[in-house]
Amino acid sequence: MRNSLEKAPASNPSLSLARGLLTANLGLPGAGSLMAGRKVGVLQLVLSMTGLALTLIFGVKFVLWFLANRAAMEDPNTDPLATLLGMWLAVRWALLGMALFGISVLWAFLTSWSVLQAARKAAPPPLPPGNASS
Questions:
Q1: Cα gap 16→10, rounded to integer Å
Q2: Which of 4, 13, 40, 43 is the most exposed place for a label (fewest CB within 10 A)?
Q3: DSSP labels for 6-66?
Q4: Quick check: is 22 in a domain?
Q5: Per-residue model confidence (pLDDT) at position 14
């Protein structure tokens, strides 16, 4: 019997499992990589959660900043460069979070793609149409 904390034996997943891992990685970057036995999935998961947290926290702060400064942004007498600087200072951390999350999604996709390619190489060749058993 294998405990849940023991390492699973290394093997290539089936093609259908590799497709499922790709889907899991696109839903939660790093999850599919971890299920495939790739240690890099931990870094992908941490990167995606960090990006998600930064986006959520600083995105809310940006919305509050926008609501507080909306009148100044619409005023034609306000200095547009000062307004843009204030907007940049309010939104930069949220944009960093979005970028981190995007990088983690791309990284997880590339990891899933390599798992999928390994599963395709390990899959048995399809039978010719005339030799299929009914």
A1: 17
A2: 4
A3: SPPPP-PPPHHHHHHHHHHHHHSTTHHHHHTT-THHHHHHHHHHHHHHHHHHHHHHHHHHH
A4: yes
A5: 84
In this prediction, residue 3 has a pLDDT band, given cuts at 50, 70 and 90, of low
Whether the predicted pLDDT of 2 surpasses 80? no
For residues 54 and 102, is the Cβ–Cβ distance under 8 A?
Answer: no
- The answer as to whether 108 is a domain residue is yes
Evaluate whether 35 touches 24 at the Cβ level (below 8 Å).
Answer: yes
Global pTM value? 0.78
Mean pLDDT of the 83-90 span = 93
Q: CA-based angle 88:56:111, to the nearest 5? A: 100
Q: Are 61 and 87 in contact (CB under 8 A)?
A: no
55: which residues sit within 8 A by CB, 6+ positions away? 94, 97, 98, 101
Report if residue 57 sits inside a domain: yes
Would residue 3 count as lying in a domain?
A: no
pLDDT digits 0-9 by tens, 5-44: 555 545 678 888 888 988 998 899 999 999 988 899 999 9
Quote the number of domains for the chain.
1
The single-letter code of the amino acid at 66 is F
